[in-house]
Design brief:
This protein has no helices and 13 strands. By secondary structure, the chain is mostly beta strands. Strand 1 and strand 2 form a beta hairpin. The C terminus is likely disordered. The two termini are 20 Å apart. It has one domain: Immunoglobulin-like (Sandwich), CATH 2.60.40.1190.
Length: 203
């Protein structure tokens, strides 16, 4: 059956950029689960007044650019101590995008279909949940089991096209999810002794 399946769960709380306050969004959490030999699993939970929020309608799962112009969840992944990083966009429509960067905003789109994040969406009267997976083993700049730095964020569109920007940490100035300060969650390689057997991750 192989060795134990070690899952390290984290919950990250996103905050709004002070220049883009929203009364319709009540909060956004991101549940993060990582094993050293499986994809990074992310579950975004947005709570709010959905009579005032806009979410793109379901579409065929495919890669698409400019998803951040509407409601979109994002993840930036880097190895600790390295300038290279990856950006992933996950839309409630089921569309997605991936980009590779050599350094700050120095990058290009990734069109590899094997990076498809397998987005699933669940919605209720006052919440929207989106699950996605990042296949770390298919990212050349990420070494297996290496410590990671994550920047988790979201763009939320409200009525009249107003956008609010949410992140783990906002650098000074205008919203900038690429800024090094935004990479505020560090994940060390899972250690068997540090994880309780009861740890559970949404898949």
């Amino acid at each position: 059956m192989g060795g134990p399946r070690i899952i390290v769960p984290y919950t990250a709380v996103l905050t709004y950029h002070p220049g883009t306050y929203s009364r319709a969004v009540h909060g956004i959490d991101v549940h993060v689960c990582w094993t050293a030999d499986e994809p990074l699993a992310l579950s975004y939970v947005l709570k709010g007044d959905f009579t005032r929020l806009r979410s793109p309608p379901p579409r065929p799962a495919r890669r698409a650019d400019c998803l951040w112009q509407h409601t979109c969840f994002e993840a930036f992944v880097a190895m600790k101590g390295k300038p290279e990083y990856y950006e992933f966009n996950f839309a409630p429509s089921g569309e997605w995008a991936a980009y590779a960067f050599h350094g700050y905003r120095d990058g290009a789109p990734l069109a590899k279909e094997e990076l498809t994040p397998g987005i699933t969406v669940r919605s209720a009267a006052h919440s929207l949940e989106l699950d996605a997976m990042i296949r770390l083993d298919r990212l050349p700049a990420i070494e297996r089991g290496a410590p990671l730095r994550l920047a988790l964020s979201a763009v939320v569109e409200e009525e009249h096209g107003i956008l609010s920007y949410w992140a783990l940490k906002h650098p000074p100035g205008k919203p900038d999810f690429h800024h090094s300060d935004a990479f505020a969650l560090e994940l060390e390689a899972p250690v068997v002794e540090a994880v309780q057997e009861s740890a559970v991750c949404k898949r």
